[in-house]
Amino acid sequence: MLKKQRRQGIARVRFPAGANSFDRQHPARGIYWLLSGGLQLSSGNAIFSHLTRGDLFGEKLLLRSRLVDQVAKALSPIDVIVFRKAQFLERLRRDGRFGQQVLKNLVLRLDRYEESGWQRQRCASSWTRALQPRPKV
């Protein structure tokens, strides 16, 4: 069954604790659905999310084709299902329950961002930089 799924652009993968499922040198191969374990998403020195069972990550691949400077690091052994972009979009199109679950997970993750203040801190620092006087040339 797994070989058939891999040919269809879907694979189940296990990463040991401490391993990066993607980073700058190994970009995301698709959209990841976390089946078990815990994961940390970071960019630069900032950790911006801790994910658990049922969470999605790598979804920026749906909107961008360029590399994203993020690291997804397993905090414990993790099992994930990896969907290639085309297969993920096809599954969303034909399976309404899957689409609802994806939307629910993304909204819950957004809620966690807002509760943590990460979004406000990031926006505040962006505004602070934008309002700083620019040096005269």
In short:
The protein is 37% helix and 28% strand.
Can you characterise this structure?
This protein is of the alpha+beta class and 137 residues long. It has a single domain, classed as Sandwich (Jelly Rolls), CATH 2.60.120.10. The protein has four helices and eight strands, in the order H-E-E-E-E-E-E-E-E-H-H-H. The strands form two sheets. Strands 1-8-3-6 form a four-stranded antiparallel beta sheet. Helix 2 packs across helix 3. The N terminus is likely disordered.
Pick out its properties.
137 residues, alpha+beta, Jelly Rolls, four-stranded antiparallel sheet, 4 helices, 28% strand, globular, disordered N terminus
CATH class: Mainly Beta
| Rg on CA atoms, Å | 17 Å
Average pLDDT confidence is 78
How many β strands by DSSP? 8
Write the layout of secondary structure elements.
Elements: H1 2-7, E1 10-15, E2 20-22, E3 31-36, E4 39-43, E5 46-51, E6 56-57, E7 71-74, E8 78-83, H2 85-94, H3 96-116, H4 118-131
Antiparallel strand pairs: 1-8, 2-7, 3-6, 3-8, 4-5, 4-7
